[in-house]
């Protein structure tokens, strides 16, 4: 296991889906490389971690100096899409970036031409696909994707690759939960060209077979399947997901822990959004929204733990909705109305109105996840990377472990993992030793 040495050679970041998030991600990386922008929102580029004691000077280290991450100048991008538009056309249409930025970045984005995607029109129903692989069976499609990955690496002159899945949200299928957990049985379904094998699963399967970490930025079922997790462990490939925690859910996983920390009760949490980009159009299909609803809804129950605090959290209502409203484009507006209660049961309310830019929030998460996925791969870590929970609405854990959704516990886990990789001590925030005999522990009193 090498922990100190900076990686050599280029890193290919491959995105199934060349849409608003991917093009904003690519545009930002290129602008940063050209010195025209700062990596705002990226923990790998701007974040720090303290190492050692608080009473020693200069203990804060930049995260990309603490652990050996790929340099963003060594990143090259490749993409697949089921629509043939190149990156500059997508960025223009997605209306995330200003005219000034578009003019600067379009020559670069023009060079990002997607390869044909694998597609199931039953699962992504609102898009007109004109750029779809002609292979007929699931196995053939997987093999074609594997060949694409090898071609990307060769053409981009990359030593390593990471897949960051940024394609449209697929229709929710509860049947995916019943897919066979053993890889050998899942393989039989692939060979039988079973319709339960979705495009997202195929991208994941192909990436893992090529030794390429797979990061799922969407709610789609893929690396959460036990059979695909088995494949990842067999092939020694890191996997992480799912669904970028970018806006409303990020705020929820900050506020809910604050309420719980102060033992404030909750009667209800009503969350709604208006969104007018292509993601919003796809999510306007109720069956696709169901996938999103599942990842957006689970966070409160795991944070609030009603069984531990029945007087505070056993009866709250939680509603989540997204409404497609074209004039708003990528400028999503999220409203939260939170009905809480305090001392002697007195009711209070909190209102949040988050006027955000969806892809601007998601892009730095994609960058961090790609760099950490590559780091995990070089450490020869395999399977579920729970330490990356910080970035996801619905984090994956080893079966049997409770999911942690509190953003600040997730951040502590992330930073302590990075300290451990760097050979440094974890930070517990106990700090009694700074006060010596003023704060002796009972056992030390004798
Ligand atoms: N923006 C955010 O804050 C955010 C947060 C969490 C998750 N997400 C998820 O990220 C994904 C991308 O979001 P976006 O705003 O870029 O959407 P988008 O619609 O702009 O881009 C998605 C792209 O995926 C393509 N696509 C669909 N099916 C495909 C397939 N099978 N293979 C290859 N390409 C395919 C579409 O043609 C489209 O170009 C969505 O699933 C969204 O829910 C976004």
- What's the total helix number? 15
Give helix % range. Answer: 25-40%
Q: Write the CATH homologous superfamily of the largest domain.
A: NAD(P)-binding Rossmann-like Domain
Please tell me what the overall shape is: globular
Bound molecules: nicotinamide-adenine-dinucleotide
Computed over alpha carbons, the radius of gyration is: 22 Å
Query: In total, how many beta strands?
Result: 13
Strand content: 15-25%
Query: Largest sheet, order of strands side by side?
Result: 5-4-1-6-7-8-13
Order of helices and strands: EHHEEHEHHEHEHHEHEHEHHHEEEHEH
- Low-confidence region ranges: none
Structural class: alpha/beta
How would you characterize the overall build of this protein?
The protein has helices spanning 20-33, 43-46, 63-66, 87-94, 99-109, 138-155, 183-191, 199-209, 226-234, 248-261, 278-283, 286-304, 310-313, 358-378, 407-421; strands at 10-16, 48-50, 60-62, 75-81, 115-116, 158-165, 214-216, 238-240, 265-275, 317-324, 333-341, 347-355, 383-384. The mean pLDDT is 93. Helix content is 37%, strand content 17%. It has a 7-stranded parallel β-sheet with strand order 5-4-1-6-7-8-13, sandwiched between helices. The chain has 2 domains: 10-244 and 359-421, Rossmann fold, CATH 3.40.50.720; 248-355, Dihydrodipicolinate Reductase, domain 2 (2-Layer Sandwich). The chain binds nicotinamide-adenine-dinucleotide.
